Amino acid sequence: MTHYRNLIVAIDPNEEDQAALRRAVYLVRRNGGKIKAFLPIYDFSYEVTSLLSQDERMAMRQSAIDQRVAWIRQLSHYYIESGVEIEIKVVWHKRYHEAVIEEVIDCDHDLLLKAAHQQDRLEAVIFTPVDWHLLRKCPCPVWIVKDQPWPEHGKALVAVNLSSEEDFHDELNEKLVKESLKLAAFADSTEVQLVSAYPSTSINIAIELPEFDPTVYNNAIRGQFLVSMKALRQKHGIPEERTHVEKGMPEDVIPAVAESIDAGIVVLGTMGRTGISAAFIGNTTERVIGHLKCDLLAIKPDDTDSDEHDDED
């Protein structure tokens, strides 16, 4: 993560406490770099006031922007005074997520941080439509931040796909592990662990093929996953006790392991897509995300134009 030095924080317009900004400051203080505190705002009533001239409407719009800039500056003053480089930018835009993505592209930001919504610290994170748009379409990694301090000697759980022989999955696994190890190198001795879920035998197969032995099949599949996990962990110097190969669906296994080891963050891959298929980041990935109770770092492959891979991530 040493290259994550041009951070953008999507400011929550309804909160005085900005968890994503705190996390960005934490990263910059340990890794260097700069932060942009970014907020898109829009008020339709400013556009339809027929009694006002265009200049008057523009002046009202600018006044609203200036007020928000002053508000963010007040929220950030302690960080700025301590030496953290924070640029504050408020824009007038109808669509929050589109404005954020345009800013990421225009300014080549390498990490987007946004606060999660949650009803309770122990409950799963609630993902809003804006969150989903950003996860699906933002070209840089997206860090969804839960409102809790980064734990000292915490754990980053990396979800890897060991079920496919496709090269793009292997390349994404490599990227996820490398990015997580870079994060761990400066984030208070964070420990990296790996997890992968393997499928259980289909009941239909056992019924249709009486001679089929599901135990032999399950052991064979588990064996393949363990071999692949061993190769991956050894390549990156990760001890065996920090790897998890569990039977079940990824959306069940990954959140359960994350909770059992008290992970501070889950790192997973989302297949980058453009055009119509940008509406999807993979059925498996979406189901996993919906069950998490900790921070999430979603990373796309280096080649984000992956329309040809419309299967699950």
Automatic annotation (TrEMBL):
Family annotation (SUPFAM superfamilies): Adenine nucleotide alpha hydrolases-like (SSF52402)
UniProt entry tagged with the keyword Cytoplasm: yes
Protein transport listed as a keyword: no
Annotated localization: Cytoplasm
Residue ranges of every copy of the UspA domain listed in the record: 4-146, 175-300
One cellular component (GO) term of this entry: cytoplasm
UniProtKB keywords: Cytoplasm
Similarity annotation: Belongs to the universal stress protein A family.
Entry function: Required for resistance to DNA-damaging agents.
Protein name: Universal stress protein E
Organism whose genome encodes this protein: Budvicia aquatica
